[in-house]
Amino acid sequence: MSKPKTERALKDTEARAVARMLRVSPQKLNLVAALIRGKKASAALADLTFSRKRIAKDVKKALESAIANAENNHDLDVDSLVVAEAHVGKALVLKRWTPRARGRVGRIQKPFSHLTIVVREVQETA
Prior knowledge:
InterPro entries: Ribosomal_uL22, Ribosomal_uL22_bac/chlpt-type, Ribosomal_uL22_bac/org-type, Ribosomal_uL22_CS, Ribosomal_uL22_sf. The protein is of the alpha+beta class. It has a single domain, classed as CATH 3.90.470.10. About 30% of the residues lie in helices and about 35% in strands. A three-stranded antiparallel sheet has the order 1-3-2. A hairpin with a 5-residue loop joins strand 2 and strand 3. About 25% of the residues are buried.
């Protein structure tokens, strides 16, 4: 009496990893995600390693997780992986307040983001 197994959302040549609740605005995270979209996984890892953005470390961690999922869970070849998708979503926003002049208050927003990375195995045509 268990519920039926859901169909796999991705193709057989794809694997994904999701990093949730990253403490950065979606706009800033999307700049780093755009840096790796469409690149080979090894080149994307190299770019993230030497990126000066603070959030690049967390993006690299998510990409390494997607690569590990592809290798261990789906038996894909690591050397032929490409970052097929890297999309960013909004999460919650913490609202904080700071005092301003003349008894007023200033609103400070501390946004969080979600990151989804999908890697795909491609066949080199030579």
